[in-house]
Specification:
Arc Repressor Mutant, subunit A, alpha/beta, three-stranded antiparallel sheet, Rossmann fold, nine-stranded mixed sheet
Length: about 350
């Protein structure tokens, strides 16, 4: 990542690179290391993919910047001084975020409070009170602006600081009934998204949104959640990121409690109030530096033959990069460089937990 604010030309290239299909956070991070700048990476992309690449034009990037300006939003690129430190600590961090409202809040210690959209009245009251108590203790409260638990958490922390992370752009108000809440958060808190400012949310955007919710937070509290829910995905991402996971126990007769109760069986900390969260945070040290894996660091092209060898080893079943390195009998950086090129070509896709699989 760059140190300090990039030039205008580099900023435009950064946005173009981030919006290029198949360039996710893993490939983006590698390309910057390999090429030295976003401008150089944009120039190198077609050759690395070995096929035509749909890189957004400079005019398209400028239109996105203009759309954000019309909303009063701000683009913050990775490596800029105001990029949230907890997001910067992720491996890899998101390349950029849009922020509508108070970007200064994003450096405060934060706790995510998430849960069911169709939440019980008791669950919503608990989330609202928990968020208010956490705010009174100086913690920023992060959630996803969804119905139910998310909305209650935002309402409880409006006075002390709250951040809504969206799947669509920062100007995409969903659900529609949260239009006034969206406006109040934009005025008093912050609305954050990786998507272009005027983009409507689609299903593929929510994994990134959940990763941002946990990534902005030191801990994630799940209040109510069924066994298959986005809140449990956020909790899993939090654990992978080294964040604390807490869950509110519920009645075994209520399906909305099964997800939280299952998290407790897996070792999550019991949350019966803000004191449990604050006690958990007391034991945390400072920000962890990004873990640098054996295949990260200064990047170079893969030697001849490694890309084809790695491609032949891939299948639709996800496998860890460590296993691929062993199977390919090649240096880890070379295997990783080959995987990035294969992802740019639409052959491979990086998954959670350092896995990769083949796209057929």
């Amino acid at each position: 990542m760059t140190a300090g604010p990039p030039s205008d030309a580099e900023r435009i290239a950064w946005l173009r690179l981030a919006r290029t299909p198949n360039v996710g956070p893993v490939a983006f991070d590698h390309l910057l290391q390999r090429c030295g700048s976003a401008m150089a990476a944009v120039e190198a992309l077609p050759g690395l993919a070995r096929r035509p690449v749909n890189i957004p034009t400079r005019a398209e990037a400028e239109r996105e910047l203009e759309a954000g300006e019309r909303l009063g939003a701000r683009l913050i690129c990775g490596g800029e001084p105001d990029f949230p430190p907890l997001l910067a600590a992720l491996d890899p961090p998101p390349p950029l975020i849009w922020v509508l409202g108070r970007a200064d809040l994003l450096s405060r210690p934060a706790v995510a409070v998430v849960g069911a959209r169709v939440a019980s009245a008791a669950g919503q009251r608990f989330a609202r009170d928990l968020a208010a108590d956490l705010g009174a203790a100086g913690k920023l409260v992060v959630s996803g602006l969804a119905r139910g638990i998310d909305g209650a958490a935002h309402e409880g922390s409006l006075a002390t600081g709250t951040v809504a992370v969206l799947g669509g752009g920062v100007g995409d108000i969903y659900p529609p009934e949260h239009d006034r809440l969206h406006a109040r958060i934009a005025e008093r808190g912050a609305i954050v998204s990786e998507s272009p400012p005027d983009q409507r949310a689609q299903a593929r955007d929510f994994p990134r949104r959940n990763r941002l919710i946990s990534g902005l937070s030191l801990a994630v509290v799940v209040v109510e959640a069924e066994l298959k829910s986005g809140s449990l995905i956020t909790a899993r991402l939090a654990a992978e990121q080294g964040r604390e996971v807490l869950a509110v126990p519920g009645s075994p007769l209520d399906p909305r409690a099964r997800g939280a109760n299952d998290l407790l069986r897996q070792g999550a900390t019991v949350c019966e109030g803000a004191e449990d969260v604050l006690r958990t945070l007391e034991g945390l040290g400072g920000l962890r530096e990004r873990e640098r894996r054996p295949w990260s660091g200064p990047a170079a092209p893969p030697p001849d033959g490694v890309r084809d060898r790695v491609a032949a080893l891939l299948s639709p079943t996800p496998v860890t990069i460590d296993d691929l390195v062993r199977a390919a009998n090649a240096p880890a950086p070379a295997v990783f460089a080959a995987l990035v090129e294969l992802s740019l070509a639409g052959v491979a896709v990086f998954g959670p937990g350092g896995t990769v699989s083949r796209l057929d």
